[in-house]
Amino acid sequence: MTFKTRFLLLLTALVAITCKNDESPTPAPGSELAPVFLLIDEDSIDNGNPPNDFSANEVNDQLAEVGLRQPLAYFQANQGDTLTLYTGQVGDEGWFALKTIPNAWGNAGPSTLGARNYLEAGPGLGSGNPDDDKEVLLDDIPNVTPLRATGLKMLEGKTVLAIVYDSDLSINYSPLKGNLMGANLGIVAFEVLDVQERTDGSTSDLPKVRIILRDAVAVSAGTLYLFANAPVPSSSSSPFDIAPPATAPAITLEVAP
Q: Is residue 5 situated within a structural domain?
């Protein structure tokens, strides 16, 4: 083998190694770079809510409007802190999974990804002119799934990115549909540490969730994932799922279209 041939083989090997090392591993679904995309309403995060008693400014209440996607002030200023959130009651839940992204969301722009367009409050998804077009694509959204104890437990160890609403989200059953119209407080990001049954409230209270706060700006730049196998309640009162199971089903996450 000539010197020139050996040199070319060595050069080819070095290029191959360099290219391999430059490849970035795909982020694990449910990590900070690939968060679970959820919705949260006033039954979990709002000014004056127990157990945190946030002020209006801490949760952007003074800024609330349709399409607001600014990180909530307290959550963004206290990254790394641990916090406990309540999650509503059976029939009046505070956390919701998106399982279906309508084709109209992808067509709305500015991107071809419907979930991303919703997160960025695209036309008809929080922005628009005239104002009455801002929410035209946010009613009768299929498979908006209220999360009760089992669904919440399945989120343990996962990073969540959520759009926060300033009021109740309205859910209809059989078939399951959600009305996502209404003012927003902004976005939050956090990791779910653990989910525990509440024993200090009413008999229909859903679990409390201990979280660690993350940078919503950074997390929102990641690939969004849908909670594809979130348990589907048959009605506003059934199942009466208030106690997290000792072992929950494994979560299934799918890239949001």
A: no
Structural domain count, the chain? 1
- How much is the pTM? 0.90
| Local confidence pLDDT in tens for the 257 residues of the chain | 554 444 444 444 443 434 444 456 789 999 999 999 999 999 999 999 999 999 999 999 999 999 999 999 999 999 999 999 999 999 999 999 999 999 999 999 999 999 999 999 999 999 986 666 899 999 999 999 999 999 999 999 999 999 999 999 999 999 999 999 999 999 999 999 999 999 999 999 999 999 999 999 999 999 999 999 999 999 999 999 999 999 999 999 999 99
- For 11, 35, 68, 166, 255, the CA distances from 28, given in Å and listed in that order, are 33, 9, 28, 31, 11
In a domain, 53, yes or no: yes
Domain assignment present for 12: no
Nearest to 171, CA basis, from 150, 155, 147 = 147
Half-sphere exposure of 239 (CA within 13 A, CB side): 11
Which structural domain range is residue 188 located in? 29-255
